[in-house]
Amino acid sequence: MLSVKLAKNIGFCSGVRRAVTIVEETLSKSKSKVYSLGAVIHNPEVIKQLQEKNLCIVNSLDNLDVSSTLILPSHGSPRNILNTAEKKKLRLIDVTCPYVSLLQKICDMLHKQGLEVIIVGDRKHPEVRALLDLAPGAYTIEKIKDIKKDIFSYKKLGVISQTTQTKDVFFEVVSEILQKNPLVKEVHVYNTICLDTVRRQNEVKKLADSVDILLVIGSRHSANTKRLLCIGRKINRRTYLVENAKVNLNKILKKANKVGLISGASTPQWLVKEIVKKIINLRKEKLK
Ligand code: F3S
Predict the structure, then answer these.
(1) Band of pLDDT at residue 145, cut at 50, 70 and 90
(2) pLDDT tens readout for residues 229-246
(3) Would you report the helix, strand and coil content of the chain in percent, each value rounded to 5?
(4) Distance 206 CA to ligand 1 centre (A)
(5) Residues whose CB is less than 8 angstroms from the CB of residue 70 and which lie 6 or more positions away in sequence, other chains included
(6) Is 127 a catalytic residue?
(7) CA-closest residue to ligand 1 atom 2
(8) Given the CA of residue 13, which atom of ligand 1 is nearest to it?
């Protein structure tokens, strides 16, 4: 009989919960339009709900009137955006996750100390782009292969990671830097992976190993969801991404007895519940 094993860490992480609560409070109090530059968090289902409550998503600040309210996203904002917003005298509501703010402070500090900054993360992700703004010229390393022999010109390095980075990749990168760059004398390592990411990554490993099929619920645009998927797949090939309740679970769950469920950090709990309900209904149908 089909059984469901649910991860302990499901639904929003602390940073996303805080961001969504602040946005909802702002929307309920505001008499005029509230804007956000791009998505506040990386989950289209949640963004749709916020838009229904009148959140207006824009791609640039160009057409915003003076004193408009602008939400700054949970993954941080580049300095040029903050400067433009200041010039336009926008009312800023900053929902940057405290883990991201701490990472930004460390990045800024390392750059000011004259260290060559190495960011282990996805260079196209807004969180990393905001860091590159704080430490111009910093290296971004996405995978071990990016580390060539003697690529670093400085003898002192400061290594930080995207908050949603995989722990194993981060530690491997640090060790590879030391092995391939013997002239580097000092490496200041700051493990800036957030606690929620670490917990979910530890949990996905255990879960993937103990079920027939693992479902990772979340958006393909969410960095932490993609990493959970990748870790899960390495252990259990039958690991699938489920973005919403429209998915054909009947097809995915064929020949499965035990199903594991985990979610990304920006996946709402109601979506996880909907998927669980669908699985239970499927089980009932099979028993008929
Ligand atoms: Fe913050 Fe970590 Fe969530 S950085 S937004 S608590 S995944």
Answers:
(1) confident
(2) 999 999 999 999 999 999
(3) 45, 20, 40
(4) 21
(5) 34, 35, 36, 37, 61, 64, 85, 90, 91, 92, 93
(6) yes
(7) 194
(8) 3
